[in-house]
Amino acid sequence: MWSSICRENWASLIQSVSPEQELREPLIDTQLADHTIEVLRELSITGDPFFLGLGLRKPHIPFTYPERFADLYGDVGMPQGANG
């Protein structure tokens, strides 16, 4: 019983974000990556050594992802863990 309850609730946490939604409100990881790219470009111009660290927030609940990745692997199944 517990397994089926967890599976149903878990599935509700996984959701795709449509391209339109992503344009209106980019995912936080997309915003962080875009900003990091900008900073890298700026820092690379100086020629000075630098360190830049980036910590992405995902995966955290809810598990949101760009819709364009939904069919990336087709119907490849994911094996269920031993504690499943």
The overall strand count is: 2
Given helix and strand content, the structural type is mainly alpha
CA distance, first residue to last residue = 12 Å
Work out the oligomeric state of the chains in this entry. single chain
**What is the N-to-C order of secondary-structure elements (H for helix, E for strand)?**
HEHHE
Largest sheet properties: 2 strands, parallel
Determine the strand fraction and express it as a percent band: 5-15%
Radius of gyration: 18 Å
Number of helices: 3
Q: Categorize the overall geometry.
A: elongated
Strand order of the largest sheet: 1-2
Residue-averaged pLDDT = 79
Taking pLDDT < 50 over at least 5 consecutive residues as the criterion, the unreliable ranges are none
Provide the helix percentage: 40-55%
